[in-house]
Write a structure and sequence with these properties.
It contains 2 helices and 17 strands.
Length: about 290
């Protein structure tokens, strides 16, 4: 399979910040390391967000080194990984301790409220572990400040200055093959430098959609990078405001064993850089 990287100027997009009181410094820069997407080892904080009218399912995890992963399944698998600075990590710990998280009891849930968002917050610090469930209605004031701060952190992770867009098109001369195109655009107010730790810049994948009647698959059925060897190599690319990089490959509709994939399939793409992330998956029927 062939791929290409093109530089395309685009009109810059402006990402608005949310209105909550920030637990992060305004001049701090969140960065991500996609090589560590699944490597949370020493957990500090986890937040599971569920409920709401559309059926939201999100998770935020932060480890003691400052690695933060936010996954939004309501956006079909979109995922962001960022590295908090020492000051940002300290502010997060301070938010939890200053508001006496270990003194909260809960659950703080009002059964009269319809379509609420539920926050299951777990914090681990100095050999203490506490989990609190809340729907953010009628919280004691300290818990309200904690949840507001978590929402701010969630939005700052998402608004990390990069927009990742996956586009899927059937090849006109071969309906059994697909062109997968990942567009990475700088939507920040200044230049962004993407840092790569190996020669693998990106990956594309295909996985069968998990349904209640079908057993979950173990990872993707097909990954562009699975049968390739990549060298350790520190490189960087700077994107100016509104500038884009485009990466694309062709997928023949088969898994990595050479078997045709059928049914409802989700296609995804990952940028393996700092900052980086995963684009929202696109569904097709085979």
């Amino acid at each position: 399979m062939k791929y290409s990287a093109l530089s395309i100027p685009l009109i810059a997009l402006v990402v608005s910040s949310c209105d909550f009181p920030s637990i992060l410094s305004e001049d701090s820069q969140l960065t991500s390391d996609s090589t560590r997407f699944d490597s949370i080892a020493d957990t500090l904080l986890t937040v599971d967000i569920t409920g709401g009218f559309p059926g939201v399912l999100q998770q935020l995890t932060v480890d003691r080194s400052g690695l933060a992963i936010f996954t939004d399944n309501s956006r079909s698998g979109a995922r962001w990984l960022v590295e908090l600075s020492p000051a940002e990590l300290q502010n997060l710990v301070k938010l939890m301790l200053d508001n006496n998280f270990f003194g909260l009891q809960g659950p703080y849930v009002d059964p009269r409220v319809a379509d609420a968002f539920f926050y299951k917050v777990t914090f681990i610090h100095d050999n203490q572990r506490q989990t609190v469930l809340t729907d953010h209605f009628g919280d004691p004031e300290p818990l309200k400040r904690i949840v507001d701060g978590i929402v701010v952190l969630q939005n700052r992770i998402i608004e990390n200055g990069l927009k990742l867009q996956l586009d899927v098109k059937v090849l006109p001369d071969d309906p059994g093959k697909f062109n997968l195109r990942l567009t990475v655009t700088n939507v920040a107010r200044g230049a962004i430098t993407l840092r790569f730790s190996s020669s693998q810049v990106f990956d594309f994948y295909a996985r069968r959609r998990i349904t209640e009647s079908a057993a979950p698959t173990q990872g993707p059925d097909w990954s562009w990078a699975r049968d390739k060897v990549f060298a350790a190599s520190l490189t960087s690319v700077t994107l100016q405001v509104g500038e884009s990089l485009v990466y694309q490959v062709t997928w023949d509709g088969r898994d990595n064993a050479g078997n045709a994939v059928s049914g409802d399939v989700l296609l995804g793409a990952t940028l393996n850089s700092v900052p980086g992330g995963s684009a929202e998956e696109q569904g097709i029927k085979l």
